[in-house]
């Protein structure tokens, strides 16, 4: 298990903190699924977002063209 | 030819010419439903008596010279996430037992005003959170998945059990089942078709659009659906438009982007061959093929999940706490685990979407449309949860079906899935055409031009 994965008790505590008490028989499965989702989404941390705003309520067709995509490691170079 | 076999455009022409009455058409489709539904289970509920009553009213109006639109008297199915006043919106879930919609959704109201006749509500993967629609069977082979989440809507149209239908699409849920059942599916530009009254999966990725037998049919339905509704914060202010494509099939001057990465990676050989053959047809019609590089592919799945997972959990916040046991196991676990995603990761996905939209805008400066497979494989067997690619890579079937569809949800770009043949097992293959924001007319023109090079499509034989 890698350092950023949640154990079943940690998953249960996080869920409770978010207002979702989980029965004991859900802890293992929720932790496993949450860790899988995390492994997929964490790749976004590679990106260097600079001043990029979130696209919270976006209008299709209003984008600026040709913005270069950089990762955080590009910035460090 | 029986009336149920007519594509929408042909049925509308026949009604306008008084060669076919809405009563004959609706009766024919209801008979077809009775015959095929035991094999398909496309519908949650069929409201036959109400449909017959609406058909009689339509027939009277048409006979009186009051044809409201090309959809007047045309029978349709609506995915059961779409509210119709007085009816349950079950979302194919036990969570919604006893539900009753108080008002029509915007799309149901527009279709009703246009004179379309509701046959019933079609099955979805529970709350649209999945790619199989397990209640429903594929129209071409009952042992194969329908695809999802708008599985019932696609299967009904493929089998002649609805002349057209509506689906919703958050990661491919219109286009995936359309491709797997050999029908046309259009995910319009984000915000072109309003969503009030439709159960959300993920607000920032949700779209609603038509599933039809032909591209021209999809254009007819879109012409009724599109237009601003201030109650949808994403709704675009666009003038009313007639999206019907011109008769001409000349694509001279059109630049068709053919991806050299991503869209043909881990794609079944028969699917790739059928799609490349269809792209060759576009070239034969005068289009110029241009190699294109798809941007930010490493971040597509992460962005899709980073947006969808927490938004879906937020939508279900109350019922996940009060009646979690009523959800199906696959949906419940995703909703629960979604509660554990940090806000920072959600914002990464939102900011990644900004970058992705900008990068795709640059790409669509180079070409007018992009042509690619809709899904990397035809319909898998029911219960077959993974696909093993020739290089040994194992991918969940759901991940595979979302993989090529998600970019259009993240960017909001319009995407049209068009059938382009069958694999050796007799299962349909779909080609996806992606365009610029509000570029539906171009997609429909290209799709229609392609269709004119092909023999008329048959209904799934079913029974």
UniProtKB/TrEMBL annotation, chain B:
Pfam families, alphabetized: Amidase
Highest taxon of the lineage: Bacteria
SUPFAM superfamilies registered for this protein in UniProt: Amidase signature (AS) enzymes (SSF75304)
Gene Ontology MF term list: catalytic activity
Transmembrane segments: none
Amidase domain span: 24-444
PROSITE patterns per UniProt: AMIDASES (PS00571)
PANTHER family per UniProt: AMIDASE AMID-RELATED, TRANSAMIDASE
The protein's name: Amidase
Lineage: Bacteria, Bacillati, Actinomycetota, Actinomycetes, Kitasatosporales
């Amino acid at each position: 298990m890698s350092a950023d994965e949640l154990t079943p008790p940690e998953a249960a505590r996080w869920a409770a903190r978010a207002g979702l008490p989980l029965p004991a028989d859900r802890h293992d499965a929720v932790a496993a699924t949450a860790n899988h989702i995390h492994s997929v989404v964490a790749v976004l941390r590679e990106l260097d977002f600079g001043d990029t705003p979130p696209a919270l309520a976006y209008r299709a067709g209003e984008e600026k063209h040709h913005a270069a995509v950089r990762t955080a490691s590009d910035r460090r170079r | 030819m029986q009336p149920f076999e007519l594509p929408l455009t042909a049925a509308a022409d026949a009604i306008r010419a008084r060669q076919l009455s809405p009563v004959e058409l609706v009766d024919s489709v209801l008979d077809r439903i009775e015959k095929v539904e035991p094999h398909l289970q496309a519908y949650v509920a069929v409201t036959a008596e109400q449909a017959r009553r609406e058909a009689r009213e339509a027939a009277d109006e048409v006979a009186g010279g009051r044809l409201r639109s090309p959809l007047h008297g045309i029978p349709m199915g609506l995915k059961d996430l779409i509210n119709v006043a007085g009816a349950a919106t079950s979302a194919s879930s036990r969570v919604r037992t006893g539900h009753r919609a108080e008002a029509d959704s915007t799309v149901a109201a527009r279709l009703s005003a246009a004179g379309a006749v509701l046959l019933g509500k079609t099955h979805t993967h529970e709350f649209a959170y999945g790619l199989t629609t397990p209640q429903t069977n594929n129209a071409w082979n009952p042992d194969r998945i329908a695809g999802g989440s708008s599985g019932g809507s696609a299967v009904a149209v493929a089998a002649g059990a609805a002349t057209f239908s509506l689906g919703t699409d958050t990661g491919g849920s219109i286009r995936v089942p359309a491709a797997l059942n050999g029908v046309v599916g259009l995910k319009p530009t984000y915000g072109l078709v309003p969503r009030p009254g439709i159960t959300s999966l993920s607000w920032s990725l949700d779209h609603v659009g038509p599933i039809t037998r032909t591209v021209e049919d999809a254009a007819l339905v879109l012409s009724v659906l599109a237009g601003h509704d201030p109650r949808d914060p994403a709704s675009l202010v666009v003038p009313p438009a007639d999206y019907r494509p011109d008769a001409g099939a000349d694509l001279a001057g059109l630049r068709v982007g053919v991806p050299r990465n991503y869209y043909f990676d881990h794609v079944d050989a028969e699917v790739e061959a059928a799609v490349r053959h269809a792209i060759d047809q576009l070239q034969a019609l005068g289009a110029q093929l241009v190699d294109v590089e798809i941007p930010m592919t490493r971040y597509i799945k992460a962005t899709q999940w980073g947006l969808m997972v927490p938004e879906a959990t937020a939508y279900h916040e109350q019922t996940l706490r009060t009646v979690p046991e009523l959800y199906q196991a696959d949906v419940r676990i995703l909703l629960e685990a979604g509660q554990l995603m940090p806000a920072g990761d959600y914002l990464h996905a939102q900011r990644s979407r900004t970058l992705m939209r900008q990068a795709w805008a640059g790409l669509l400066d180079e070409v007018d449309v992009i042509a690619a497979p809709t899904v990397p494989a035809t319909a898998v067997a029911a219960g077959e949860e993974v696909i093993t690619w020739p290089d040994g890579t194992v991918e969940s079937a759901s991940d595979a079906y979302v993989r090529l569809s998600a970019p259009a949800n993240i960017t909001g770009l319009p995407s049209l899935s068009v059938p382009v043949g069958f694999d050796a097992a007799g299962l349909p293959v779909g080609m996806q055409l992606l365009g610029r924001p509000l570029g539906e007319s171009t997609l429909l023109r290209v799709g229609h031009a392609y269709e004119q090079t092909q023999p008329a499509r048959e209904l799934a034989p079913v029974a």
